[in-house]
Amino acid sequence: MGEATGLRWADIGQETKHLKVKDVLCSARTGDALPQAAPKSVAGFRTVLLLPEAIEAVKTMLARWRPKDTGSPISDGRDLHPEELVFRGPRAGC
């Protein structure tokens, strides 16, 4: 779940039809998203091929939300920009 929560638009390659898993966010008791000290192992950093259905979902979400595709650092959580996240809360936050 933390890998999906940390997925940002900059990590999705539409032309190459893949996404890169490189950030992990976890939920604090306060409800804030906090960065985790990277994936648990080197295997946690990976590239995932997207199925055609996922690519169509990405295109639909991009057209609807017009998110930022920047990749700001999330080292301490304060630099996290919710508009960069693929999966956001109902009020566009993380």
Helix percentage range: 10-25%
Shape: globular
Strand content: 15-25%
- Count of discrete structural domains: 1
Over all CA atoms, what is the radius of gyration? 13 Å
> What does the oligomeric state look like here?
single chain
Distance between the termini: 13 Å
Secondary-structure element pattern, one letter each: HEEEEEH
Mean pLDDT: 75
Any overview of this molecule?
With 94 residues, the protein is α+β, with helices and mostly antiparallel strands. The protein has one domain. Helix content is 19%, strand content 17%. It contains 2 helices and 5 strands. The protein has helices spanning 2-5, 52-65; strands spanning 12-13, 18-21, 25-27, 33-35, 46-49. Strand 3 and strand 4 (33-35) form a beta hairpin. It is globular and about 35 Å long.
Quick overview of this protein structure:
The protein has about 90 residues and is α+β, with helices and mostly antiparallel strands.
Supply database-style keywords.
single chain, 94 residues, alpha+beta, three-stranded antiparallel β-sheet, two-stranded antiparallel sheet, 5 strands
Layout of strands and helices, then pairs:
Blueprint: H1 2-5, E1 12-13, E2 18-21, E3 25-27, E4 33-35, E5 46-49, H2 52-65
Antiparallel strand pairs: 1-2, 2-5, 3-4
